[in-house]
Amino acid sequence: MIKMLFIASVLISQTAAAEISSTRQDELLYFLKQDCGSCHGLTLKGGLGPALLPETLAGKPRDYLVTTIMEGRKDTAMPPWKSMLTREEAAWLTQQLQTGIIQQTAFAKGKAK
Amino acid sequence: MMRQLLTLFVILPVLLLWQNSLAEGCPADNNTVRGTGDLGIVIERASGSVQIIETSHNTSLGRVEGLGDLSHASAVYSRDERYAYVFGRDGGLSKIDILNKKLVKRILQSGNSIGGAISQDGRLVAVSNYTPGGVKIFDADSLELVANIPATYGNHLQRSKVIGLVDAPGRKFVFSLWDAGEIWVADLSSPGNPTITKFKDIGKNPYDGLITPDGRYYIAGLFGEDGMALLDLWHLDAGVKRILDHYGKGEQKLPVFKMPHLEGWAIAGNLAFVPAVGRHEVLVIDMLDWSEAGRIKVHGQPVFVMARPDGRHVWVNFAVPDNDTLQVIDSQSLQIIKTLTPGKGVLHMEFEPRGEQVWASVRDEDRLAVFDTETFEQLNTLEAQKPSGIFFTSRAHRTGL
Predict the structure, then answer these.
(1) How large is the ipTM?
(2) Contact B148, B126 (CB under 8 A)
(3) In chain A, what are the domain boundaries?
(4) pLDDT in tens, B35-71
(5) With an 8 Å Cβ cutoff, are A41 and B72 in contact?
(6) Topology (CATH) of A2-104
């Protein structure tokens, strides 16, 4: 079952990734690290904003998280990012965060641009 | 005569060589004598290192590594300007010997911290923490814990993130509680037994605080509502007063992509300059009566608003997506007199002690840019890994920095 879920998530990941160029993916990861990192920490362990680690995001519906990124959250410091991101890009970022893929990839190595 | 000339020709080069070898062959950790008044550190946020630079010739002297997560970091200096205390995001407090380029001691004092301050007498270093929310105070020599001040509020079970921590005269530290909307004054005259004076309902979500250079007024900027909270430390009994509270009434705020910072106090004459939250404006405050004296339209949402030491100009950088730009405001005409575009990710700037040059971090280009503050020409550029905060030793002798 876990294996199937894993395969499913890889498939989803590939579908989403297919719509976003690898150059843009690198830009998004850089953005996540440097700009989201201002409040959530470069290592995503939190700051003024909460941690964005797979375990803290576990069980939260992806749509809800995507909407939080795009629309912000009222009465908190989380702004709406829709002027800088498309919904697909926010979905891709959310998926990276939830699956923790970025922890082992370019993001963790501090790859720029 | 011929012989004398010959001697000169032989001796002179030898002398010059000897001098050169003296000048070049001096690693910092031997017994070379050097002052530290022209030194500074630059936070390299992604690699957890700081670079040590000097401002007499604008060069890099080396790097100290192993400082943890510096995604948000700041620093203060010992009064002898030899040691830098670096406050990292991961709760790390690092003491660096900038002369010898060595990490003297590093402790992980909390899960998540935001900044710090050093006491008037240089004996105590205070750190403001997000997790668990509060302030911890350490002996500046040993980094041993001296006092722990949990930022409890409400039913005393909740703890608030602490921001805007500054030192104040009389061995005091002043700070604000983001979640609770309070300002606390901690008197460390008796270090192990701090006396806390709390001011409640100062406004929603104070995001940063600063103190005037004379150490009299503490001001917290508010994120959750308009205006700022002002506390006169000479008259604590008068309480906290709201200033600029009419500001922006009925106007739609822009999304705030980066929290502004209140660092130092941009003062020119009786005018003070602060970033407006969620607006492309710098606010001007008349310090004689704390009223609004003007609003200056700027390129983006200001993050740092800093006066050149002589107060004649005010330099401003901006939040993403406008963080490739710096603007300079004339403090008398309140007009923008220069717009510079050093590159993407201009995160911080620091004036040299007397203000003739300013250093800027250009994160996305992995470099520092040094500008002449009269001609606005770029004088130098130095390599740095994802640089953010720049801190010169001259801060050692300024209250609140």
Answers:
(1) 0.78
(2) no
(3) 2-104
(4) 999 999 999 988 999 999 999 999 999 999 999 988 8
(5) yes
(6) Cytochrome Bc1 Complex; Chain D, domain 2 (1.10.760)
